[in-house]
TrEMBL record:
It comes from the Bacteria. Coiled coil: none annotated. It comes from Leucobacter muris. It holds the Pfam family bPH_2. This is PH domain-containing protein. The chain crosses the membrane at residues 33-51, 57-83. Keywords: Membrane, Transmembrane, Transmembrane helix. Residues 82-155 form the YdbS-like PH domain. InterPro entries: YdbS-like_PH (IPR005182).
Amino acid sequence: MTAEVESVLGPAPASYSQPEVVVLRFRRHGRRLVWPVLALLAIAGAAGFWVGALPAAWMNLAAAAGGILLALLLGVLPVFSWLAHRTTVTTRRVIRRQGLFSRQRSEVSLGRVREVRSRRGLGQRVWGAGDIELLHGAESLTLVDVPGGERVADALQELMERNYEHSARVEQRLANLPGAAAAPAAAIPQDQAGPVSFW
C-alpha cells in the first residue's frame, strides 16, 4: 500500500500479513440429489418402454420430446442448481457463491461475525446436516443444509474466536508502540486535505 492510502485509511490489518488459507469447501448436502436421480431413472425407463412402441411416428417423437423435457426439468436442472451452490471457508472469511444463470456472491469477514447459530430439523438430523446462521451486526448470512452441520458450526465458532483474539492482540501491540499516541496528530490538517490520488 502506498503512504497516501495508509494516511487516509490507516495501516493494513495485521491479519493481512498472514496468508489466507482455505479451511473448508462444501456444497449443500448430497441428499438433495436423490429425487432428481430417481426422476431421471423413472423417465429413462418410461421413455425406453414407450418411445418406439407407439403406432405413429409423430407419437414416438412427441413421447421422446416429452421425456427429454421432463428429464431436463426434473433431473438435469436440479443437479446443476446443486452444483452452482458452493461455500468456501477460509481463515479470514466465509464466501457463498450461488446461482445457475445469474451468479451471486455473499461474503462475510470472520472478524465481523459475533455469533454462530445452528439449526437442525428432523430430516437434517437423520442425514447429519444442518443450517448455520452467521450473525454480523444487524445482518446475517445463512448457510442452508450444510453437511456435517455441527462440526462445521464448531469450526466456524473456533475460527471466529481466533480471529477476534488475534485482532485484539494486534490492537494491544499497536497501542503499546512508542509514538502510537502521536500518530493521529501527524495526520493531514482538515483545511489542507484534498482528494487522494492512488495513481
